[in-house]
Amino acid sequence: MNELLLHDVSIRWISVSEMSNNVYLITERASGKQLLVDAAEDFPAIEELISAASQDGPDTEIVAIATTHQHWDHVRALAAAVEKYPVTTYAGADDRQGIADESGVKISHPLSHGEKIQLGDVVIEAIHLRGHTPGSIAYALVDSSGQPVILSGDSLFPGGVGNTWKDPQRFSSLIADVTERIFDRFPDETKVLPGHGGTTDLGTERPHLDEWRERGW
């Protein structure tokens, strides 16, 4: 289990499945309100993650479940999570049908670019990144300590943007959105927590943007 403990929030995450999917739990420390992000697989392991975060705030409570995108490996435990925690579900509007097809869950609040999720006093912004899937959403917050954090799903990783399957149009869309909506807006110290694998920060990745554009992936 991994953790990032900030002034306003704690973010804990685990890796599940043969795809090494990251499942994240954001807890607003003042209220104990929690947002679960990407119920990928292994619901018992997700329950252990939730239990481990019970110390991160008073009377911790799952109040919403968010999904970064529609791919099957990110939603295999979504139905079980919604059954146990019948709360508001969030995902990109353009991935809503795909998530329903893959998981059987109809997203109750489809997100558009720039929409906000209120988690206690913490604001989490939905950033629409088009290319890996039509409705991929990154979730961004800025802690009162000044630390920005982005849960990037499969749209941004250490070393490049997400898979666009050698489709030039999809790659062009994704690299443009990642550049304009993430790198042009957020500072180098922004922590990036992706849908698989290890974390990074924008300062580490920023010098390589031109290289990514040139190689096309």
TrEMBL record:
Q: Name one Pfam family in it.
A: Lactamase_B
Q: Which UniProt keywords apply?
A: Hydrolase
GO MF terms here are: hydrolase activity
Protein's UniProt keywords contain Hydrolase: yes
Q: Where is the Metallo-beta-lactamase domain?
A: 20-196
Domain of life from the UniProt record: Bacteria
Region entry Disordered, spans: 189-217
Q: Does the keyword Isomerase apply?
A: no
- Its name, as the record gives it, is MBL fold metallo-hydrolase
Organism in which the protein naturally occurs: Glutamicibacter soli
